[in-house]
Design brief:
This protein has helices at about 1-15, 25-40, 45-60, 95-105, 120-175, 245-260, 295-300, 310-325, 325-335, and strands spanning about 80, 85-90, 185-190, 195-205, 210-215, 220-225, 230-235, 240-245, 270-275, 280, 290. The protein has a five-stranded mixed beta sheet, with helices on both faces. The protein is elongated and about 140 Å long. Among the domains are: about 20-65; about 160-335, no CATH class. It is of the alpha/beta class and about 350 residues long.
Length: about 350
């Protein structure tokens, strides 16, 4: 028994399991050995060294493959003779269909779907119609808002818009029919002799005179007279009075004379013109200087007698340009005088 005390520790020390190396199966070791043989002509390659290292470490005591009984299917039974007795061992083949049926769970019947409620059916039918009606209602509300806003703006600024349209129409006529040497000014704000300000719609500076034009963009019948302080415009049953534009423009012409320093005979070269749109119909004998917008250019071109020198025209132009440059400030002062 003394030799066993030395042999057993020696076997434990020399066994690969004593070093904690896991052993591969016989099949894995055969694959490693095949790789070692395949790369034996390349001993320095990674494949050879890796296979050799794995084989040396894990195939010293390979794990044998488990033994399983071989089951043969679809093979007829063979008689086995033992001595003089002939026995027949029959191995029934495994029916694959039966195995599949046994493994397949029975089909699950789907749960019956719930019947839709009448309210849900009606909701599904009328949902597109309701959506369309909602979008149409939103568009109508938006349209009504836009129309209301336009009506508000038109009602509040109707007179100003009409006046601007009339002045623009006259501007196109003058730019088309007057010579290019004539100087044309629009919406000039100039001081008067009393210290306040007045606004001139149009002013034309030429060697043949200075033309101060007041624009009226009224529509309907016009009643009045050259000496009457008020004129009347009537359209259907609606009528209202407005200041005699000849008297109104007289203030403008006097302010222009003061600004340019014109007195005496030179002051007679400042002409007053009142321009009405073609929508107006006069019901009285109008003066010669009251014209329709389209005829203002022809009326100015009738003046062909020179009355100003070139030096005077340059001085007038410089003063009018100064008034034009300060138009924003002067217009603000002009508006303030109506707030007091």
């Amino acid at each position: 028994m003394r030799w066993m005390r030395f042999t057993l520790p020696l076997l434990l020390l020399t066994s690969p399991l004593a070093f904690g190396q896991k052993q591969y199966t016989e099949g894995a070791c055969l694959l490693l050995q095949h790789q070692i043989v395949q790369f034996s002509n390349q001993p320095n390659s990674h494949n050879y060294q890796s296979a050799k290292r794995e084989f040396d470490n894990h195939c010293q005591n390979p794990i044998p493959a488990p033994v399983k009984d071989l089951v043969l299917t679809n093979i007829p039974a063979k008689p086995i003779t033992v001595g003089s007795v002939k026995n027949t061992v029959t191995t029934k083949p495994v029916n694959a269909n039966v195995a599949v049926k046994a493994a397949t769970p029975p089909p699950v019947k789907p749960a019956p779907s719930a019947q839709p409620k009448p309210a849900d059916v009606l909701k599904g039918l009328f949902a597109p119609v309701l959506a369309l009606l909602g979008s149409m209602l939103a568009m109508l509300l938006l349209l009504a808002l836009v129309v209301g806003l336009l009506a508000y703006v038109a009602g509040r600024y109707a007179a100003r818009i009409k006046g601007a349209l009339g002045e623009w129409a006259l501007h196109k006529v003058l730019a088309k029919e007057l010579p290019s040497s004539y100087q044309h000014y629009r919406n000039l704000v100039i001081p008067t002799a009393t210290g306040d300000f007045t606004e001139v719609d149009h002013l034309v500076l030429s060697p043949f005179g200075i033309f101060v034009i007041e624009v009226k963009n009224y529509r309907g019948w016009i009643f009045g007279g050259e000496k009457q302080p008020k004129w009347t415009v009537q359209r259907f049953r609606s009528k209202h009075q407005f200041m005699n534009p000849l008297h109104q423009n007289y203030k403008h012409t006097e302010a222009v004379k003061q600004l340019l320093g014109l007195t005496g005979k030179d002051g007679d070269s400042v002409h007053s013109i009142v321009a009405f749109s073609l929508r107006a119909q006069f019901k009285f004998q109008i003066p010669a200087n009251v014209k329709y917008t389209d005829l203002v250019g022809d009326y100015i071109n009738r003046f062909t007698q020179p009355c100003f020198s070139d030096d005077q025209l340059r001085q007038f132009s410089a003063r009018l340009n100064m008034a034009k440059a300060g138009k924003k400030v002067l217009r603000k002062l002009h508006k303030q005088q109506f707030n007091y």
